[in-house]
Amino acid sequence: MNNQPPAVINVNFPKPPLRIIAAVAVVFLLLILFWTSYYTVPAESEGVVLRFGKFLTTVEPGLHFKIPLGVDEVSVLPTRRQLKLEFGFYTYGYTNPDQPAQQQLEEKSMVTGDLNAALVEWVVQYRIDDPKEYLFDVRNPGQTLRDLSEAAMREVIGDRTVDEVITIGRQDIEISALSRMQELAKRYKLGVRVDQVQLKNVNPPREVQASFNEVNKAQQDRENAINIANGDYNEAVPRARGQADQTIRGAEGYRFKRVNEAEGDVASFNAMLGQYIKAPEITRTRLYLETMGDVLPLMGPKIIIDDSMKQLLPILPLTLKPEAK
Q1: Using one digit for the tens of pLDDT, what is the confidence trace for 205-240?
Q2: Could you tell me if 79 and 47 are in contact, meaning their C-beta atoms sit under 8 angstroms apart?
Q3: What radius of gyration, in Å, describes the C-alpha atoms of the chain?
Q4: Apex CA 53: angle with CA 48 and CA 58, to 5°?
Q5: Angle at alpha carbon of residue 209, lines to 206 and 214, rounded to 5°
Q6: Using an 8 Å Cβ cutoff, are 126 and 85 in contact?
Q7: Which DSSP symbol is given to 71?
Q8: Domain 83-204's class?
Q9: Residue 32 in this model has a pLDDT that exceeds 50
Q10: Are 202 and 118 contacting, i.e. CB atoms less than 8 angstroms apart?
Q11: What is the residue extent of each domain of the chain?
């Protein structure tokens, strides 16, 4: 067994010339300068240029150049795209860095004005309106926006009853929360514009979910019964009014007919009275004969007798007139 140490062989490589080292350093420096002297702003964003950490200007989308080696720094903000914050839930695959994936239960647990609990989920849609304010006036504008949005929503929910929050007051809550968030964002100079607040799922706590469902079902049944009653009312009342109007018009027509007939009779009587006053005997005789002419044809065959006569003689073949039959 050989216990001798291995032999050490010294190999002396030739050192590269200093010119090659300097050339490599210059090329590497030029690559760094070239690589840090341009930047690209996406179509839906704006670039905020900082020179020695101080705001310089904002640039539009496209290819731009800057002073390299860290003199100019560029922050790209999606100012032309609507951003979204979700509260009480989150969508998988979100791109907003201010959207956390924790604390959903704490965010959506709220107390209403009548001291009831509710689970409120909502969405805030906003845009970066002023890049300079967004970067420099507030240390963490995204988290600040989340905090003031949650505070505004809790303030609005705390002024309403649980029935308003769950059923009839959703639109009013959205409008009030939007106005409050816009006011706070402007006051804190966040550089954002809140465009919309939308309530998603609003439910009571799981422990009382069944009771609330029964209450909602009872309210829906009541509304359904009211709608059916209103439908019957809207059907029966116009029909009754139409029948009443028809009866009234029939009565008015009958009244006009009787009045006109009475006025005609009065005019005829007045005309006969005038003739009677002028010639009473002649008028009386004429009226008597006209009356007998209307009455006698209705009496059938007639026989005229006299007390002094011993024998009945048919005098005239008086029969019914054809028009009187």
Answers
A1: 877 777 777 877 888 889 899 999 998 899 898 889
A2: no
A3: 54
A4: 15
A5: 170
A6: yes
A7: T
A8: alpha beta
A9: yes
A10: yes
A11: 18-77, 83-204, 279-324
Q: Check if the beta carbon of residue 119 is closer than 8 Å to that of residue 88.
A: yes
Number of residues assigned to the chain: 325
Residue with tokens 């422990």: 207
pLDDT digits (tens, 9 = 90+) for 79-124: 989 999 999 998 888 888 888 877 788 889 999 988 888 999 999 9
What is d(CA 167, CA 216) in angstroms, rounded to the nearest whole number?
9
Check residue 191 and give its pLDDT. 92
Q: Which two tokens stand for residue 68?
A: 């390299």
Tell me which of 154 and 32 has the higher pLDDT.
154
84: CB partners within 8 A, 6+ apart:
96, 99, 123, 124, 125, 126
pLDDT score, position 28: 78
CA nearest neighbour of 185 among 146, 230, 239, 216 = 146
DSSP conformation class of 22: H
Residue 214 identity: E
Instruction: Please report, to the nearest 10 degrees, the dihedral formed by the alpha carbons of residues 74, 78, 84, 85 taken in order.
Output: 10
The whole model's pTM is what?
A: 0.58
The residues with which 74 forms a beta bridge, in sequence order, are 49
Q: What is the DSSP letter of 166?
A: I
